Amino acid sequence: MAVWDDALTEQDRNVVELRPPRPLTGFGERSALLVVDMNRGAVGEDRPIAEQLDRYPGACGNFAWDAIRHMQKLIPAAREAGIPVIYSRHIFRAIHDLPRATDPTYSYSELSPLSELQPEVAPQPGDLLIEKQRASLFFQTGLIYMLLNKRIDTLLITGNTTSGCIRATAIDGLGYEFKVAVIEECVFDRIEMSHKASLFDLQFKYCDVISVDRAYEHLATVHQGRTLTTVSG
After folding, report:
1. Rounded CA separation 153/176 (Å)
2. Which domain holds residue 49?
3. Is the pLDDT of residue 48 over 80?
């Protein structure tokens, strides 16, 4: 059962059953793992969102932490497989003279500790980092140059939020002709309806939505391929 099944109306189900499914994109030759906007202010505490809005106005709360527990295992697995791990941080810096950049109460200002990345899934030496100010990780950033430089053709996407930055990044990635897979258990949102609808929409029209188990299978294949290449070389 897909996470979005209980959100579909009877008419929706009829359309899905009668319409030929979109062919799966699959994986290419070189993958990268994107860890999108795991800012502390977007994560919040591991409890219901409504209980912490006074301290974390943008929190995804327990939904975020459900994803983090998966990401804490998946990210090291990606590093071990030898694929690039690319983080993004949504942040406004004073040097750019952007709105609210110097407002310490704004959770995306560099002056706010809430703009920092969540320590439990923070970058490690060797990981890459993009700073951004809009939804898509591609919008006016150096991401495309990083990917081209490493000859990446497949994006595995995790992070925050499903209906915002995840969706925008996935669609832009598709526009640049990357193979895109959003990892279901490793993305999250503040509103369950938005999360389910966005995952359904991405799978229905744009890219693959895969389970974390399928992601591990892919990483194992990548790791094995690299090991065989090293041995034969």
Report:
1. 10
2. 28-91+117-232
3. yes
pLDDT tens digits for range 162-192: 999 999 999 999 999 999 999 999 999 999 9
- The pLDDT assigned to 225 comes to 84
pTM summary value: 0.96
Print the SS3 string covering the chain. CCCCHHHCCHHHHHHHHHCCCCCCCCCCCCEEEEEECCEHHHHCCCCCHHHCCCCCCCCCHHHHHHHHHHHHHHHHHHHHHCCCEEEEEECECHHHCCCCCCCCCCCCECCCHHHCECHHHCCCCCCEEEEECCCCCCCCCCHHHHHHHCCCCEEEEEEECHHHHHHHHHHHHHHCCCEEEEEEEEEECCCHHHHHHHHHHHHHHHCEEECHHHHHHHHHHHHHHHHHHHHHC
Which residues are registered as beta bridge partners of 90? 132
Domains contained in the chain, number: 1
Residue 121 covered by a domain:
yes
Domain membership of residue 159 (yes or no) is yes
For residue 7, give the nearest of 216, 157, 204 by alpha carbon. Answer: 204
Question: Residue 141 sits in a domain of what CATH number?
Answer: 3.40.50.850
Whether 227 has a pLDDT exceeding 90, the answer reads no
**Confidence (pLDDT) at 1:** 82
Task: Report how far residue 32's alpha carbon sits from residue 83's, in angstroms, rounded to the nearest whole number.
Answer: 6
Sequence-distant (≥ 6) Cβ neighbours of residue 192 within 8 angstroms:
63
